[in-house]
Amino acid sequence: MLDLDAASIVESITTSEISISGRLVDASNATLFGTVSSETGEHEIPIIYKPIAGERPLWDFPDGDLASREVAAYEINKYLSFNIVPFTTLRDGPYGIGAVQQWIEIDESFDLIAFSQTDDPRLREIALFDAVINNTDRKIGHLLMDAEHNLFGIDHGVSLHSENKLRTVLWQWRGMNFTEIEVVKLKKFISERERITVSLANLITEMEIAALFARVTSLISAGSFPEPNGEWPAIPWPPI
Ligand SMILES: Nc1ncnc2c1ncn2[C@@H]1O[C@H](COP(=O)(O)OP(=O)(O)O)[C@@H](O)[C@H]1O
Ligand SMILES: [Mg+2]
């Protein structure tokens, strides 16, 4: 873990020059690994940079770009008072505007496959987050466990579509009632609609923002986690 406070990490990832040091070969789009310098210049903060120019077009996500969806997902995570998504921002970089996200150093020895099927409350929070953002790609590889055993969720480029397309490996809470705290979080999200709409307006379409609030409203009235709808493949492939 970096010996820097969260605010200064955010500041550096937002404003410092990006140095690219590699490309992630298993990524489906141009996903670059790099660093930014801390404000004092004493630390290198690892980041992942996904330039919009390197995106492959997708038939089912024709509007906008994936980088903006990643940033929108980060913003929504913040409005829900979750700490699931590592800090993510849209900014210029060596290959143009893209999503820049803090890189999480993972615990390589941790068995995420077994963990992902448990009823750990941190996974439950991610399952709720995915229902809100309509995530189509919650694979095990999009869960990260760091050395201090904080759990993160990444790769939200294919989320926030206006039609329901939830695809996840986290179905263990399907049909189960929300806790009171979960309902309070969802209701608070609805009550902040105006502010949230402004912050998402340049990231996703008006229709997608309307669909986001409609999803949250119907989650509140259902009072429970969604179930697979039977039309759309419910589990991403490959699931790892
Ligand atoms: N913030 C991050 N911290 C640590 N590893 C990451 C982070 N973002 C991505 N990765 C690693 O890079 C891989 C590819 O990134 P991902 O966001 O899944 O890109 P793609 O959209 O190309 O699938 C991930 O599966 C993960 O192993
Ligand atoms: Mg991925």
Strand order of the largest sheet: 1-2-3-5-4
Class per helix and strand makeup: alpha+beta
User: Could you estimate the helical fraction of the residues in percent?
Assistant: 25-40%
Number of domains: 1
User: Mean pLDDT, rounded to whole units?
Assistant: 95
Poorly predicted ranges: none
> What share of the residues does DSSP label as strand, in percent?
5-15%
The oligomeric state is single chain
What does this structure look like?
It is a single chain. By secondary structure, the protein is an alpha+beta fold. The chain is built from 7 helices and 7 strands. Helix 5 runs antiparallel to helix 7. The longest helix is centred in the C-terminal third of the chain and has 17 residues. A 5-stranded antiparallel beta sheet has the order 1-2-3-5-4. Strands 6-7 form a two-stranded antiparallel sheet. The protein has one domain. The two termini are 25 Å apart.
Question: What labels would you give this structure?
Answer:
binds magnesium ion, two-stranded antiparallel ribbon, alpha+beta, 240 residues, single chain, binds adenosine-5'-diphosphate, 32% helix, five-stranded antiparallel β-sheet
Write the layout of secondary structure elements.
Layout: H1 6-15, E1 19-23, E2 32-37, E3 44-51, H2 66-79, E4 88-91, E5 98-102, H3 112-115, H4 121-133, E6 143-145, E7 151-153, H5 180-191, H6 193-200, H7 206-222
Antiparallel strand pairs: 1-2, 2-3, 3-5, 4-5, 6-7
Helix pairs in contact: 5-7
The structure holds adenosine-5'-diphosphate and magnesium ion.
The site of magnesium ion has 2 residues, from loops.
